[in-house]
Amino acid sequence: MASSSKAEIVRKLFAAYLANDRKAVEAAFTDDFRFTSPYDDEIDKPTYFERCWRVADWIELQTLERIMVEGEGAFVTYRCVAKGGKSFRNTEFFSFEGDRIRRIDVYFGAAYQNGVFVRQAER
Length: 123
Known about the structure:
globular; alpha+beta; seven-stranded mixed sheet
């Protein structure tokens, strides 16, 4: 798969999140999908949707700042601004199997509100 195709898969995934299109997000993941973040270690697809799926109506703005594809992986850095003014930047590493996403590893960024750092509470 060409790098541009993987970048397009990432763009479509983020658009599906914003549209609250869970079916499209589920279809983008392999059956053996795994997710890791500072709060989650190697959780499977059903657990991911149980713990992490949220309606995105709280997001005012989402900007994909950078997508860097190499081989079967891609780093994505993005910024979100919540309707209440809080913002954060994350970087995620996507691993692909064909044209589907097999794994996502999330690295959280700092959160800010009105230009001031806001400590994030564990969930």
